[in-house]
């Protein structure tokens, strides 16, 4: 169940940050992730909301799920003008909540979950605390991981952001790519179904 938003913050925002508006534009596959499957995970150090830094190719887990998103919204602040009209941009908070609510289901499938965005760790930590996320979120604010893998990005109001996609990592390589991702609030279930249908041997 999604957490309630404090009434004071609800009063300042015209929509519900925890729900997807109707009639959002649906993203299409522009081919920006076709090169990723099979690539090695680069040895880039990423800081996490758990006050540590990790290199994903060194993380001890049979599989690692990394869901990348543009930016989470902020309670009490309306999304920037034009944000909802960008295919695939809206929905970072509902997507994160979806992975939160299904988090326990990933462990039996031998998969560890991380979020990934280009916001700073401090920005991400507020979101993690507010949403009570049980997993860490990785900050690629210097775009080192993004550029090493040539991850899909877009620019909005002069800021470069990740397009929404998900990587499944195994043995230091990218095993599976989900792109485009829509609707984001049901994406955790989509990833779980793929993991269950493709068990490790």
Textual characterization of the structure:
The protein is α+β, with helices and mostly antiparallel strands. The protein has a single domain, classed as 3-Layer(aba) Sandwich (Glutaredoxin), CATH 3.40.30. 22% of the residues lie in helices and 22% in strands. The chain is built from 5 helices and 9 strands. The longest helix is centred in the middle third of the chain and has 11 residues.
Present the secondary structure layout.
Elements: H1 7-12, E1 45-48, E2 53-55, E3 63-68, H2 92-101, E4 111-117, H3 121-131, E5 136-139, H4 144-149, E6 153-156, E7 159-162, E8 165-170, E9 173-178, H5 187-197
Parallel strand pairs: 3-4, 4-5
Antiparallel strand pairs: 1-2, 1-5, 3-8, 6-7, 8-9
* Lateral strand order in the biggest sheet: 2-1-5-4-3-8-9
User: What is the N-to-C succession of helices and strands?
Assistant: HEEEHEHEHEEEEH
- Give the CA-CA distance, first to last residue: 34 Å
Mean pLDDT: 93
* Helix/strand/pairing category: alpha+beta
| Largest sheet features | 7 strands, mixed
Uncertain regions: pLDDT < 50 for 5+ in a row?
Answer: 1-11
What sort of overall outline do the alpha carbons produce when their principal axes are compared?
globular
Q: What fraction strand?
A: 15-25%
Q: Supply the number of structural domains.
A: 1
CATH hierarchy: architecture = 3-Layer(aba) Sandwich
């Amino acid at each position: 169940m999604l957490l309630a938003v404090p009434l004071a913050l609800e009063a300042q925002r015209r929509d519900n940050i925890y729900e997807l508006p109707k009639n959002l534009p649906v993203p299409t596959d522009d081919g920006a992730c076709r090169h990723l499957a099979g690539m090695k995970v680069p040895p880039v150090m990423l800081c996490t909301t758990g006050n540590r830094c990790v290199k994903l190719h060194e993380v001890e887990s049979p599989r690692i799920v990394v869901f990348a998103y543009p930016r989470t919204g902020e309670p009490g602040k309306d999304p920037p003008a034009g944000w909802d009209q960008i295919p695939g941009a809206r929905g970072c908070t509902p997507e994160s909540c979806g992975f939160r609510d299904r988090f326990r289901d990933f462990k039996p499938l031998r998969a560890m979950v991380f979020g990934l965005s280009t916001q700073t760790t401090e920005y991400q930590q507020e979101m993690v605390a507010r949403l009570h996320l049980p997993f860490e979120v990785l900050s690629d604010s210097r775009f080192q991981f993004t550029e090493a893998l040539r991850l899909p990005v877009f620019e909005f109001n002069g800021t470069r952001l990740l397009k929404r996609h998900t990587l499944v990592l195994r043995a230091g390589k990218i095993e599976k790519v989900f792109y485009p991702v829509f609707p984001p609030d049901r994406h955790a279930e989509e990833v779980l179904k793929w993991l269950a249908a493709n068990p490790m041997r």
